[in-house]
Amino acid sequence: MKLRVRESVRSVEGEDSECEEAEVRWMKVKRKACDGEREEADKGVKASSLVDMAMTPAASSLFQMLRLLLAVTLLLIQVNAEGICFDRLGCFPSGYPWTGTKERPANKLPWSPEKINTRFLLYTRQNPNNYQEISGTNPETVDASNFDLDQKSVFIMHGYLENGDVSWAVDLCKMILHVDDVNCICVDWRGGSQCSYSQAAQNIRVVGAETAYFLDTLESHYNYTVSDVYLVGHSLGAHAAGEAGKRAPGIPRITGLDPVEPYFQNTPPEVRLDPTDAFFVDVIHTDGSSQFPSIGFGMIQACGHMDFYPNGGEDMPGCSKNILSTILDIDGIWQGTKNFISCNHFRAVRYFSESVVSPDGFLAFPCGSEKEFQAEECFACPAEGCPTMGYTIGPYRPAPGLLHQTFYLRTGESSPYGVWRYNVSVTLSGSHSVSGILNVALYGSKGNTRQHQITKTKLRPGKTYWALIDAEHDVGDVTKVKFLWNNNVINIFQPKLGAESITLVRAKDHTSFRFCGNEVVKEEILQTLTPCTS
User: Fold this and answer.
1) 165 annotated as ligand-binding
2) Domain of 432: which CATH number?
3) pLDDT above 90 coverage of the chain, percent
4) What is the pLDDT of residues 101-140, one digit of tens each?
5) Parallel, antiparallel, or unpaired: how do β-strands 253-257 and 229-234 relate?
6) How confident is the model at residue 336 (pLDDT cuts 50, 70, 90)?
7) Residue 514 assigned as binding residue
8) Residue 357 domain-assigned (yes or no)
9) I need a surface site. Which of 276, 423, 488, 505 has the fewest CB within 10 A?
10) How many CA atoms lie within 13 A of 218 on its CB side?
11) Is the keyword Hydrolase in the record (predicted)?
């Protein structure tokens, strides 16, 4: 039996009916005790009845108050054992799989909605710089705001130790509003995030329920349905988004930005973000390495319909590893690394934000593993094209019922992070073989790239060498290629090599470009190749 705790506690002084009600609840709790405890408790009740008969009215009233307090204490013990309920939001069970497991050892319940104080901060094109607070418990705030019932809504849910007006969330709203006319809502749950990690991991259940309640208010008061809603959550916020999706069925899409690992990885679907939480769930993994020694806080476990693993999903280029192996308690890790976790774990936010305005730079390839991707075995795209990781996602969608499809890609070390992948093959000309390095730079209608290494090996005239390169700029249609080779060794014979031909295949649309050359050059001398005439 699930017991309900009222959000407001009334005075019990002089109210015999409440005393009797609490006594009944206590008896229900008492009946669940073991046989020996039941007998002892029954004796206690009988004894208390005899004492009541012998007491004066004033003493009897005081004793009833004490008995009520005892009943409430037992009631609260039962609540902690089985869960807790709140009038607006429903019940939050305890026990398996929420507490007391290997993955979630802390026996904690979520805080009350009042303590967490979930807020909804609205940004629109009419107010892109200053939010308007709207509320599910006060629909008049929606009437008084710029909320547009004819537009879709994007909810941004922050993570641990953060708040709803944190700069990245506000900036993300501004970027989205730049490309789409939507209601962008930052969900602020700082009252439940700035505490011990194990407690915050439970509080997200209430945050998700509050979000679902707000969506229900929009539907019941304004006929605004969840089919117009998109949830984006980072870290703990990703699992909060999942909780909202569980309680508000029908949400079209949820994006998880490096969903946090501790207390969630390898747990049942009802605990964490899962494909059943929306019609389409996509996830970006950026900090999935083992907790020790490199302290990765993101899930490596696939938990969406499509799971993206940029740079393998563990250590991002440009981020140094953080070794704090002397801290063994998970709450201590989080508190002690508030500043450290802002690189790998936060890269998911950076990539997603940049993808809003530059989606083509995050083309991702279906691949079984990072090992296969490193071996350059994953360049082919489906007939409808490869998806782009991030906001736009592209036309590709997995077939119905297909879960946890994995995609891999590379990013740059610093902003801008997007890269454009090419398959490059170089056929050499010359008269002598020499050990050295081949480099190629691309020039196009939108700019040019730096020199990218194709190979470092024995260079043999007549042989073709190939590699996949990730260009740091979108150069548009390639109009010419510059070839450079060197071996960094003094050679009195001053050998010459040239690129007889260079063929490029652009990954995003598999467009081919072919360039030809008719000269050989010494090392460190650029050779320019132009489109072949035949």
Assistant:
1) no
2) 2.60.60.20
3) 73
4) 999 999 999 999 999 999 999 999 999 999 999 999 999 9
5) parallel
6) very low
7) no
8) yes
9) 488
10) 25
11) yes
Share of the chain above pLDDT 70, in %: 79
- The residue out of 387, 409, 431 marking a domain boundary is 409
Q: Is 381:507 a contact under the CB 8 Å cutoff?
A: yes
Among candidate residues 409, 436, 455, the one where a domain is terminated: 409
Where in the sequence numbering do the catalytic residues fall?
235, 258, 345
Domain that holds residue 312: 114-409
Q: Are residues 425 and 405 in the same domain?
A: no
How many other C-beta atoms lie within 10 A of the C-beta of residue 435? Answer: 12
Together in a domain, 405 and 425 = no
Tell me the pLDDT tens digit for each residue of 252-281: 999 999 999 999 999 999 999 999 999 999
Residue 7: its pLDDT value, please?
35
Q: What pLDDT score was predicted for residue 38? A: 37
| CB count in 10 Å sphere of residue 278 | 28
- In order of 36, 501, 514, the CA distances from 429 in angstroms are 94, 9, 16
Q: Which helix (H) or strand (E) holds 464?
A: strand 464-471
Cα separation, 365 vs 367, in Å, equals 6
Mean pLDDT of 491-497: 80
CB count within 10 Å of CB 81 equals 13
CB 12 within 8 A of CB 65: yes
For the four alpha carbons of 487, 488, 494 and 498, in that order, the dihedral sign comes to positive
Number of structural domains found in the chain: 3
Same domain, 276 and 341: yes
Could you tell me the pTM of the whole model?
0.82
Could you give the count of Cα atoms lying within 13 Å of 455 in the half-sphere of its Cβ?
A: 17
